[in-house]
Design goal:
183 residues; alpha+beta; Alpha-D-Glucose-1,6-Bisphosphate, Chain A, domain 4; 6-stranded antiparallel beta sheet; 6 strands; elongated
């Protein structure tokens, strides 16, 4: 029964691998709205970010600039969340702890407004927690090493966030949501 389930899950993963809802580069970033003032666009952008479950970071935000707190990406089991775009990114968020931070800048331009969206993606890393050599990997259950593991269990772990660049799919999704809300 297990091989059948494994093959079925593999087929579903392969089939869903190309299911990103927005193609990269579909909208220009920054996007110009010729007939909509900056205040209206800022209000819509704020609502879009809140629908995606981002929290607006008020000390960092100012008029014309919306900055968000970091948001941990949705995994496969959080199908109702829309902040992770595409099957590959959802799989990545299921295997690693991924977070995203969005910044939306709105400025007046020629009687309308211009919107620039930037989403930075980071991965959580705990360096030094795994075995460093193959010999250490096979020595995990050695009785002599178990005492060391117990002593270090409560020691703080030095987590760090590794920069993975921009998340262009989420940027495009945010731009599309703003455009759709304004029409």
């Amino acid at each position: 029964m297990r091989p059948v389930l494994s093959v079925l899950l593999f087929c579903v993963a392969v089939t869903a691998a190309g299911c990103a809802t927005v193609s990269s580069g579909r909208f220009s970033n920054p996007m110009t709205f010729t007939e909509t003032d900056a205040d209206t666009v800022e209000h819509v952008a704020r609502r879009v970010l809140m629908e995606l479950r981002f929290d607006i970071e008020y000390p960092q935000s100012s008029e014309g600039r919306l900055a968000t707190d970091s948001l941990t990406g949705a995994s496969w089991f959080e199908f109702w969340r829309k902040d992770t775009i595409g099957a590959m990114q959802r799989l990545e968020s299921s295997l690693h702890t991924i977070r995203r931070r969005a910044t939306v800048s709105i400025s007046p331009k020629d009687g309308g407004s211009q919107v620039f969206v930037k989403v930075i993606k980071q991965r959580k890393s705990a360096p030094g927690l795994g075995p460093e050599t193959i010999g250490q990997a096979f020595n995990i259950y050695d009785a002599q090493d178990m005492e060391l593991v117990r002593q270090n269990e409560l020691a703080p772990t030095a987590y760090e966030w590794l920069d993975m660049g921009r998340d262009e799919l989420l940027e495009q999704d945010i731009l599309e949501r703003i455009l759709t809300s304004l029409q």
